[in-house]
Design brief:
133 residues; mainly alpha; 7 helices; 75% helix; 0% strand; globular
Length: 133
């Protein structure tokens, strides 16, 4: 399993970076993103929160790309991303019966796949030499 995780790490970092960076759409195009991606009504009074969240997610996504060339970033980034993504998953699941949640299932699925990979990587590649190589 460790061999598989090492062989797929670069691809996983790229895909996680790309998918997570898409949150930047909320910073650049908040109305479009909220209405089209989350299927919610856009309220301009919420734009500061929407754009802030979008930038934070974009920065996590960009960190995945940096970790592709800086292996020392992998373990800390995986730990931070795991916490952030598990929290998002818990928010979606805890609000599953709410009508506004429909636009969040795809993002939650992507974050769940990323979390499964991160948990596997951190578990099977526990030694510092394995994680940073």
């Amino acid at each position: 399993m460790t061999h598989f995780l090492h062989k797929t790490r670069q691809l996983a970092l790229f895909l996680a970076g790309f998918g997570t960076s898409l949150g930047g759409l909320y910073t650049l195009f908040p109305q479009w993103a909220v209405e089209n991606l989350n299927q919610l009504a856009y309220h301009s009074s919420d734009s500061i929160f929407i754009q802030h969240w979008g930038l934070m997610v974009l920065m996590v996504g960009c960190s995945f790309f940096i970790a592709m060339v800086r292996s020392t970033w992998v373990k800390p980034l995986f730990c931070i991303a795991l916490i952030e993504k598990l929290f998002f998953i818990s928010l979606v699941l805890s609000n599953a019966n709410q009508p506004f949640i429909d636009g969040f299932w795809l993002s939650m699925t992507m974050d769940s796949i990323i979390c499964i990979y991160i948990i596997g990587y951190l578990w099977f590649c526990r030694t510092s030499a394995d994680i940073s190589s």
